[in-house]
Amino acid sequence: MTKFRYSVATAALVLSTTGALAQTEIQWWHAMTGANNDVIVRLSEEFNASQKDYKVVPAYKGSYADTLNAGIAAFRANQAPHIMQVFEVGTATMMGAKGAVKPVQDLMREAGENFDPKSYLPAITGYYSTVKGEMLSFPFNSSSAVMWYNKDAFRKAGLNADVPPKTWPEVFDAARKLKAAGWDKCGFSTAWVTWLNIEQLGAWHNVPVGTKSNGFDGFDSVFQVNSPLFVKHLTNLVDLQKEGVFSYSGRTNTGEGRFTSGECPIFLTSSAFFGNVRANAKFDWANTVMPYYPDQPGAPQNSIIGGASLWVMGGKSAAEYKGVARFFTFLSDVDRQVKLHTESGYLPITKAAYAKVKDSGFYKERPFLETPLLQLNNKEPTENSRGVRFGNLVQIRDIWSEEIEAALNGQKTPKAALDAAAERGNAVLRQFERTVTR
Amino acid sequence: MNKTATFKGYLIPALLLAPQLAITLVFFYWPASQAVWQSFLVQDAFGTSTEFVWFENYKELFSKPDYYKALWNTLVFSTLVTSFSLSIALLLAVMADRQIRGYQVYTTLLIWPYAVAPAIAGVLWMFMFNPSLGIMAKGLRSVGYDWNPLLNGNQAMALVVMAAVWKQISYNFLFFLAGLQAIPKSVIEAATIDGARPMRRFWTIIFPLLSPTTFFLLVVNVVYVFFDTFGIIDTITGGGPSKATETLVYKVYSDGKGGADLGGSAAQSVILLFIVICLTAIQFRYIERKVTY
Amino acid sequence: MVENRTFGDRLAYLILTIGVLILAFPVYLTFVASTWDAATIINGQMPLYPGPFFAENYYRTLFIGTAGTTREPVINMMINSFVMAMAIALGKIFISVLSAYAVVYYRFPFRMAAFWLIFLTLMLPVEVRIFPTFKVVADIGFLDTYQGLAVPLIASATGTLLFRQFFMTIPDELLEASKIDGAGPFRFFKDTVLPLSMTTVAALFVIQFIYGWNQYLWPLLITTKDSMQTIVIGIKKMIVTADALTEWQLAMTTAVLAMLPPVAVVILMQRLFVKGLVDQEK
What we know:
The complex is a heterotrimer of chains A (about 450), B (about 290) and C (about 280). In chain A, about 50% of the residues lie in helices and about 15% in strands. Chain A has about 450 residues and is an alpha/beta fold. In chain A, helix 5 (about 105-110) packs across helix 14 (about 320-330), helix 9 packs across helix 11 (about 230-245) and helix 19 (about 395-410) runs antiparallel to helix 20 (about 415-435). The N and C termini of chain B lie close together (about 10 Å). Chain C is mainly alpha-helical and about 280 residues long. Chain C has helices at about 1-35, 40, 55-65, 75-105, 110-120, 130-140, 145-155, 160-170, 170-180, 185-215, 215-220, 230-240, 250-270, 270-280. Chains in contact: A-B, A-C, B-C. The interface between B and C is large, with 100 and 101 residues.
């Protein structure tokens, strides 16, 4: 009885508040933590203060995978948020469901916002656009993979701290020297094992991860992760793990503390790691572009982005879409992008913002913030380096991680592991293809 | 199981049962029937396209090694957790049953982990054994042991087992202690007078008398490992590495996560439903037997 | 003989002490972690004794929240957990007392069918039917409400079974006597059954409170607003971070705070707790 009365009371309360304010609420689900969460809250507050019609309400939903999961469950129950932050690997999953999402290009056009797709950095928006160049989602926090290194450790090991290794063989040598100099548990390591050692590796060497331009040209793509480059690289990692030079740090970024604690002096991970390095590393550090294999023709090509973009969910009212569009215009503002980039370490998404930061001389003092941009723009992207677009990539990454782990702990040879990675990945792709084509 | 004296009428019992039946139907049977329906479908993540495929999801499930691996993991996990938590708890209970001074304080200090949430138990153990910041991990490596549960499936399993055992000891301890205290002192005294040594006395007299408790705990522990360890696995390993710690229940969740394979996940739910119904029936028989005598 | 006895007692003390220490060690470490700063923990240099940040960490956790992840003061999460746990415990007691009374004291068609309908839900955890249940709750509009957190978890058979067992032990003579006094089903329930059941009610309450407080996957899925988070979920969200390192000191402080209420309940109401557990499984 009391419970019933209580819910009636709540219902009445909800009705009265929405009636009184007549403000359109825009739900924004995200996965940002730490300083980046502050950024989201501040952006929402600034936007809410800048106008009266719309109110952006951010909600932290856990990890990227948790957020996507929650969004899907909510959509199926007709409770989807307006804006959902989805990591780059969820792109194909989002695209595959017609009607579930509202393409950003359509949203902006219908809302009558001033929107020029050409003002955005193509290396970033390309990942989230159709082959024809239509922008599907709005890039929010973008990063790329770079190599972080501990300069103090380099000096102790007799390495030149100002000229970091450029190629993989040089990295292996440096790591061996570091091992000899006392870093005997971990000479080098990587976070995000598949992003670094499959997706980025392929793009950086202009080698396809899958057919059909890494899935951009169609969902019927087939994986080629067992091609020679990937096998060679994994074989190296396995051998070096046995030698005690390489040390595996898990599938996500949970091992990143091994760099800031000084345990691993060379660490490949996201450029967005910057905030934590600055806060927690008690030694002299720097970052540089990812290493490459010099015998691979055309390497280095260009790296691809990581991070996440904002997807607009389908089935909302025109008024709500207008608010979302207004918010995106607000986010694209040059000065706002400059501030976001210089404070959070995520990449600027418009050409104007990048130019402004460059002209200000900011990168002279903080070259580590430009490393990912130089890498992304290293060469004109090819069909192998625009990005990857595979359905259910979240699950595929898990499968790949499992196979890489199986190779690293000696259960399988690298070749056998990658063959299985391709085969099992293809099975997931076929299942995905089946659900989107009808 | 029936009372001889009862009230008459239909309306009152119907009203009394209504809240529970309504909640059960809405939040249990309706979702369960949805799971059955879903298990015959292939859908995209957002449910915008649907295809009815009869038993294909089931066929798929049984044709892949993953499912058998999860089944195997569940068996290994159950066996390890049950045997460790039962034997440690039994040892502690026998010691506490000696009625030494302050044994009640010890009892209190031994039963509180029951109140810790599985997910939090997972966090505690993960924190101790995390390769990059855990104290125990550092200790293990400093004595030359290559501790890396991120890569080594057996170590990951060991870690999950430890956390699960840690949480379950309290429960088993309580029941063993209650069982021991229910044994008439005269039986033990008689054996002591006969000159039986403590160890012999335990194995020949006390342990057999405890067997109903042990059997009951066996069932409860298996159920615990099947279902209640979800939070532990999710916080410590997330099922990895290489699915080495993925149990049947965890697989239901991880396959359905992100809408990747809702049909397959639902098919697994249905199989688990079936298993649960069987387990419930076994437990029910057990309960009825205990009640009637 | 006397010698032997002393040796045995010493052995018992030794083993029990070791057992207590092993059980307490993880919690002790958690407490230690809650008294250090982030860098010390992340860099793996945490000592085995408490540090100087106790007051700061607890104050920040309780009243300010983490800088990054959940951002909610943990005290709010504790309130949410408390409301959810209370609602589950009381709700379960309420519906199961009624249904058990109906099943035990009435003869009506489909009585056994109703009983089995309830009984089959005994062991099926919410994890197994999580996705469809979510949809049902969303359709009803219960997302982000206390009702949504609690009501689906009330749907379980444990309470009904427990009360059914207990009612079976109430002597039939009591019913006969009160029938002679002219008491109807309501008076019999109010004057006889309920007073007799009070210990059982209290015991069930203790167990269900702990069960409710410790819920994990369900609140993880159905709360979308930060302000509706429970403390167990708060910890999970503090630990899983993207592009940011975990604020371990605050996560560990939260872990300590999350353990306190249920552990306190077990210790302070040990007798009821033991009764609740043992009865539930009889």
